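Notes to self after the Tuesday call (sharing in case useful).
The group wants a holo model before anyone commits to mutagenesis around the pocket. I volunteered. Ligand is glutamine. Logging inputs and output together so the record is complete.
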Amino acid sequence: MTRFVFITGGVVSSLGKGISSASLGALLQARGFKVRLRKLDPYLNVDPGTMNPIQHGEVYVTEDGAETDLDLGHYERFTGVPARQGDNVTTGRIYSTVLSRERHGDYLGATVQVIPHVTDAIKEFIGSNTEDSDFILCEIGGTVGDIESLPFLEAIRQKANELGRERSMFIHLTLLPHLSAAGEVKTKPTQHSVKELQSVGIQADILLCRSDRTIPADARRKIALFCNVAPERVISAPDVGTIYEVPLVYHEQDFDVEVCKHFGIETVSEPDLSRWTQIVDSIKQPEGKVTIAVVGKYTELPDAYKSLAEALGHGGIANSVGVEMRWIDSEIFEQDGAVQRLEDVDGILVPGGFGERGSEGKVAAVQFAREHQVPYFGICFGMQMAVIEVCRNLAGVPNAGSTEFGETSDAVVGLLTEWRKGDVVEQRDADTDLGGTMRLGAYPCRLKEGTLVHQIYGSEMIEERHRHRYEVNINYADTLESAGLVMSGVSPDGELPEIIELPEHPWFIGVQFHPELKSKPFDPHPLFTSFIKAAVDRSRLV
Ligand code: GLN
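Result:
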């Protein structure tokens, strides 16, 4: 029997609903249940693929090639369950489904309305492909009270009503601000937010209260009284040192026990949370520290590189060191000599990115890493920039460039117009729509024996997730190899270069895919483990 938990948020956005949902997922999993997490986003974009990462944060790509909300990354990192296309939906996607059904005549002449047609489509999404799960945790994006959230709240109200209380529950995450002048945490915004939910027919079963401190007992009692929940169902969600501590903090307050009780599940034994204690201990007691410069474009918003930051941290856990990330806007390296600022770092990483702005600064960072023997990790755009740098400075192709930036005489990186996905040949051209048309999702890659990546992965075939429109032109393979660059990973048909490395360098690897998407705190990605190890080795040298 699949049970459904609906998680809403109130008072303000950015309270960490994704991490709270993921943590509950981890706790239920530790109790032996199969969980799946889903996100319902109220905005009108069909998916976040076309959104600016500075507005929306990272676009998380699933195995099956969906461009989704970054919270799905938290879900995977906390539970290890690979997210699927069907785990994230937006108002835009719901409406496009409803409207295409209307055009198709599926509504048999009915007037198409938010209730029931849009709400039915939302319920269909919530209830689809649930066979393999004991629990479906559904997070509703946005904040209660937003106009855009209303159809989603109505849909979960209806769904819970259909399922019955023994198969559904509501969790509401709110904020308890601390006013220093008053010397206390204030409960009024929480009371209002719970009332707002009640006004659409939803009574929260458990409240998670975010605050910069643990909630005092009297505030807890007051919230329970005004919000119609038992005091033990008011759970404190204080700020913690690392997000991986959240499952432990919740468990200490019996959050998982209360959820189980709601569903009539007995909780005699304690769940095994040793995985989380080990991770937290290792993060809190590092045996050293390395500094990694991340030279990118969207550096003002940490969420723009969420999975990357987490994966670097996982590499730190694997090597028992802390990883200090220095986020640098690559544009500054376009000034003469500015790249010298990279002198004191232990590793340089150029992450994924789009567009010409700042690209020359990235090329300068690659050159610095190569010439100064600093470990270099190029991810997607970072691999393309590395190839351009090597072409220009080692292979005698001074005009090497990418067609992403316009016409160029030596298009070492060019538009991907045809590739194989399983048995299907995908085709694109310069006029194709931008949304959902990149090379997306998991693709296999064959590793060359005797290379560093072969040793790091310990296998010949790997599968990694992609999100790009351009690729390194295989016709330059000989030119690049004569300059000392090895194409250590290629697509199985040998057409697409997927990994490059420089054997003469302590650690210089570029990958066309996004390994950060598959890294987990309890299963750090081997490339990040190896990169951080190289940074540790360097830090001991200098
Ligand atoms: N802009 C490049 C491309 O589309 C790289 C994309 C990325 O880094 N994700 O190929």
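Two things stood out.
The pocket of glutamine is lined by residues 352-354, 380-381, 404, 467-470 (CB under 6 Å).
The mean pLDDT is 95.
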